[in-house]
């Protein structure tokens, strides 16, 4: 209840304007930390016992109000703290996780590259070359969330010695590290995505994540965050649906609320069906994680299914608002635009379905 109050009181009234200006409401970060939403999993930062189911519902609530804000939390908490939690030494975890949980330290997760998105497992080109206790990193990253103001970015790079992907904690401001905001985005506009250049960036061996030995370990982090993105997709759909029900009851045509027309009710029922099925699937995937039985294919199936139905839902909502559906002030346009990014990040719809297909057939169609 406290989380919902915070979101309705402090975030909802400003979300459209921050989206429109392509700015992020950084002043809200300490409150998110105070509510315990950053790092609820790790022993170093957990404020109270919680389950994957609880964390999933929180992701839904965040995206229901602002998918951009949910994405910030996902990058800080799921991807970056997840990478440090899964791959870091006890010293690294103790150093980074507590200040990230309060929001004093902001993180980013640098995997995608200009020339490598879906194929990062094989196509990653950024290199890390070790000389003594120093690694020298060269390459480029694209789309990296929070990177314009992050204190630390986990950079994934290929070790020139053994060709395996390794993770490095690169502090903002390190010589050779440049993050440039990606402008003119038409989805998740409040999220500060950056192009990163790494030109001879030096990182000490103490800042390499020792428990990341290959891309398989990166995939563990992605599996965990993907399930939460599935919850976010449902939350996004709920946000658009709620605005649409309100609008349909208030808007009159032919002397009646448009909500009284059968075709409008059909659309609302289809939206509710999508949302309900999405919640059911997400609940099951979170239960599997709580039982330590979640596989890559479970979170991939949930991400693919909920983002596909989310896209249909926001389109039905937009349609129901007529012309006002494309304007920010009526509560649906932002969700419709943001849905396009959620559909494609953390593994595109296709890649997630191919992960499921591999589990079903035993044949990997994407290598
Ligand atoms: P591509 O890989 O070029 O794909 C283009 C199309 O080809 C897609 O439809 C895809 O499904 C299809 N395709 C590719 N390969 C196959 C295949 N084998 N079979 C069938 N179809 C295929 N990355 C980070 O590292 N950190 C972040 O913080 C981050 N945040 C992001 C935030 C936003 C708003 C966005 C848009 C992206 C973000 N990303 C981030 C990157 C994101 O993960 C990638 O965009 C995503 O993985 C897809 O890569 P791509 O955009 O290069 O598309």
Describe the structure.
It is a single chain. The protein is of the alpha+beta class and 367 residues long. It is 53% helix and 16% strand. Helix 7 packs parallel to helix 9, helix 9 (296-320) packs antiparallel against helix 10 and helix 9 packs across helix 11. The strands form 2 sheets. Strands 1, 2, 3, 4, 5, 6 and 7 form a 7-stranded mixed beta sheet that branches. Strand 2 (127-131) and strand 3 (134-145) form a beta hairpin. The chain contains 11 helices and 9 strands. Bound molecules: flavin-adenine dinucleotide. The site of flavin-adenine dinucleotide has 23 residues, from strand 1, strand 3, helix 10 and helix 11. Flavin-adenine dinucleotide binds at residues 75, 109-112, 117-118, 143-145, 188, 191, 193, 341, 344-348, 350-351, 354, 366.
Q: SSE order in H/E notation?
A: HHHHHEHEEEEEEHEEHHHH
Number of helices: 11
* Helix content estimate: 40-55%
Name every ligand kind in the structure: flavin-adenine dinucleotide
Q: What's the end-to-end separation, in Å? A: 45 Å
Largest sheet: 7 strands, mixed
| Average pLDDT | 97
Number of DSSP strand runs? 9
Report strand %: 15-25%
Q: Can you tell me the overall shape?
A: globular
Rg to the nearest angstrom? Answer: 21 Å
Broad structural category: alpha+beta
List segments where confidence is low: pLDDT < 50 over at least 5 consecutive residues: none
Write the SSE topology.
Blueprint: H1 2-21, H2 29-34, H3 52-65, H4 67-87, H5 90-102, E1 107-110, H6 120-123, E2 127-131, E3 134-145, E4 152-159, E5 165-171, E6 177-181, E7 193-204, H7 215-250, E8 252-253, E9 256-257, H8 262-290, H9 296-320, H10 333-344, H11 349-361
Helix pairs in contact: 1-3, 3-4, 3-7, 4-5, 4-7, 7-8, 7-9, 7-10, 8-9, 9-10, 9-11
The protein binds flavin-adenine dinucleotide (FAD).
Flavin-adenine dinucleotide (FAD) binds at residues 75, 109-112, 117-118, 143-145, 188, 191, 193, 341, 344-348, 350-351, 354, 366.
